[in-house]
């Protein structure tokens, strides 16, 4: 079972109230900027508005999901929700740091909470195009288009903002933290939380540099 199925089984068995379901919003302005997923489809995000004392506080979570480091893996990826918005869930469960339940998420439950979907395969960093395979490497443009969209939707007025992500999203958080800080006035409290986002360039158990080789492929292929 995947995480969604496990959560459904848990809540269905009386484990508590069901998690919040938040609809997918496609970034319509992204097409004109060339800010598209691997297959050329529009990128998207899920947003649940904050309220009360934290109506001007924002959590932006960058979705994780690995990387593609060669043409074959990227072509495979573009036929999934990690490479195309055509395959993304129309609704996503907001749990953990995105939950709306005070007992589960006491620090952020009433903040504006955003999940930005990951569909470029290079931690929102690539810039390029492979015509033969029909692959768009536009992670950096997706990042910029998503930030522009959120700023126009009220994030510009944030009193405090937190950029977060796990795994590939955690690496994206590290890479984009300074850019995120630069979006806001100096008096806005801005922080970044990279969850499992650091991948060390060290010799592995087989005596090689697997991570160096893998990320080298991502960088050279996608222009990150």
From TrEMBL:
One of its GO terms (cellular component) is plant-type cell wall. Belongs to the pectinacetylesterase family. Its EC number is 3.1.1.-. Its main location: secreted. GO terms for biological process: cell wall organization. GO terms for molecular function: pectin acetylesterase activity. It is found in: Secreted, Cell wall. It comes from Musa acuminata (Banana). InterPro entries: PAE/NOTUM. It holds the Pfam family PAE. This is Pectin acetylesterase. Keywords: Cell wall, Cell wall biogenesis/degradation, Hydrolase, Secreted. It is an enzyme of class 3 (hydrolase). Hydrolyzes acetyl esters in homogalacturonan regions of pectin. In type I primary cell wall, galacturonic acid residues of pectin can be acetylated at the O-2 and O-3 positions. Decreasing the degree of acetylation of pectin gels in vitro alters their physical properties.
